[in-house]
Amino acid sequence: MTATQTHCPYCALQCGMTLTPEIPLRPGMPGVRLEPAEFPVNRGGLCAKGFTAADLLDHTDRLLTPLVRKEPGNRESPLREASWEEAYERIVTAIHDSQQEYGPDSVGAFGGGGLTNEKAYALGKFVRVALRSSAIDYNGRFCMSSAATAANRALGIDRGLPFPLADVAQARTVLLVGANPADAMPPSMQYLDTGRADGAKHIVIDPRRTNTANGAYLHLQPLPGTDLALANGMLHIAIREGWIDEDYIKTRTEGFDSLNKANAYWPERVERMTGVPERQLRETVRMLATEGPSMILTARGAEQHSNGTDTAQAWLNLALALGLVGKPFSGYGTITGQGNGQGGREHGQKADQLPGYRKLDDPVARAHVAAVWGVDPDDLPRPGLSAYEMIDRLGSDGGVKVLWVLASNIAVSAPHSNNVVDKLRRLDFLVVSDIFLSETAEFADVVLPTAQWAEEEGTMTNLEGRVIRRKMALPPPPLVKSDLTVLTELAGLLGRGEFFTDSPRAVFEELRRASAGGIADYAGITYERIEAEQGVFWPCPDENHPGTPRLFGESFPTASGRARFIRVDHRDAAELPDTTFPYVLTTGRNMQQYQSGNQTRRVRALNVALPEPRAEIHPDLARRHGIADGDLVELRSRRGAATLRARLSDGIRPDTVFAPFHWPGANALTNPALDPHSRMPAFKVCAISIERAPDSLEN
């Protein structure tokens, strides 16, 4: 039996694993044994999700054939099995009819951060070349877009970690802002644990006492939505106490003088704004400045806000002022969440981007990519709407009428999900490609089954910017096709087949050419190099280039070669508590589940460990409302309501409730207010009320 080295299908660690064929448990389905591999990222470790990933390959819920509505155009009629020919015929007819009546932009696609680089690239090309539409975005807009925007404008490049994950073990002080890797990506904790064992000190900023915070030297618990004020307050202290690195600022940065208003964030004021004691502010800055090398790592807790870009910028300002960025075992980074959250946004899934992290509105970029694709630059559409803006206009005049959703479950994962469901219902035609019948697929006119991670070839780019190989360990079921094949076949039916291929290697070779010279330059990366070197770090402009594990050692990829300070000021969250909705809801991950839960909620071992969502509530808040541990509680916002079981914990602020987003419910409450720069929704703060649910609702 031949073993295949590949990677986990879940988070951005992309842990290495080995799949070995074995006798199947279900007749007609392949069997496989999964074991962790000694890959540089996970070094033989896996989390519970990774260990159980193969359980989904032969799951009884798996989609094995296309599905169509029994009565075309009637979504109340049941879905039935269909041939690929029938499914394609319905899709192509819907595309033609819509574009003939409403124009090219009436048809669009919504992608996912779990798609391989090849599929993300091909999807962006398909929308712009085969559909000639501007309507494309993806769920990564809900993930790292704010940190990416801030990094691009301050550092000239967006790569989640500008250094290998292993460098974290060498840092003496690590500040984690809105990050809970102990639950979100457990194998990464070995690097924090190693550092701690060697005397490193870790500081966690989070309104909850998470599993990550439990092991920290210091835990700061701000009011959700005040991280920017917290960062500016620390910068104020660093300047006033003389802890900034003046030589670094002078030689490696520009714009520091623009921060003179940082003096407005004196510690006493910041304590009132955030709830974090002044002594903790001072201790944090002192450690970052004097107990180095030091790192500041942000994640979604700091970024999923209506001011998320400015918040990430504030932490970048602090890191630059302390002279951390570009020094060994030091710097600023952001922790990517989705499996290919990094690569997925580099090669054309975002509404404003072309491959290589090029801008769609840049004439030089358009000319370069159009030449690779063999089309006229003038035929490429202009930038379209961001993810939630596109969703919010579905079915309306000027909005998308026919939508194809790939590897995303927006009925659960998008904010203000009741509105999202309403918009999906208004579509003239919805196509969903997925492994299982997701909550989004339940509204579809056509559902297409797709190959899983172990049944396909391609590349992924992990949180370090390391491009890795996803390798086929077994074939997909007989009637299941890869997304690349579907894209190619549909392009052919639309009369644009000559521009597409379903060979992952051929697509990657084209991607290399399209990305050449761009910010995310993959030109020197080959499948063979990835295999031989256990991944290659971009940028890698030619095959003789070693790749770039560490950025910023000598300069920054900006026009001046210097990093940029940009003044940012705190502003209140888009929605504040009031007498009707007096508390703050924040959302996040649990260890056992992933994203919308469409996959992990089907794994028995994970459901046994965590069978339902629980609202985390402080005992003082629970007592005020007569709530006991295990009671059902109703959370209500201006947009909707959700009923969850209560979990009492003194590790959360008494004015804050935490709810996981892996089940339907939490995002019925969240606020779709968008960051003006990144178009990221404000997932992490909304105003809610809470009450014990009526006894009749209890199980």
UniProtKB/TrEMBL annotation:
Q: Does the keyword Iron-sulfur apply?
A: yes
Positions of the 4Fe-4S Mo/W bis-MGD-type domain: 1-61
A Pfam family that this protein carries is Molybdopterin
Keywords on this record? 4Fe-4S, Iron, Iron-sulfur, Metal-binding
User: Looking at the keywords, is Metal-binding present?
Assistant: yes
Q: Which InterPro entries match?
A: Asp_de-COase-like_dom_sf, MoPterin_dinucl-bd_dom, Mopterin_OxRdtase, Mopterin_OxRdtase_4Fe-4S_dom, Mopterin_OxRdtase_prok_CS, Prok_molybdopt-oxidoreductase
PROSITE patterns registered for this protein in UniProt: 4FE4S_MOW_BIS_MGD, MOLYBDOPTERIN_PROK_3
Query: What is the organism field in this record?
Result: Actinoplanes sandaracinus
Which PANTHER family would you find in this protein's record?
A: NADH-QUINONE OXIDOREDUCTASE SUBUNIT G (PTHR43105:SF10), RESPIRATORY NITRATE REDUCTASE (PTHR43105)
Q: What is this protein called?
A: Molybdopterin oxidoreductase family protein
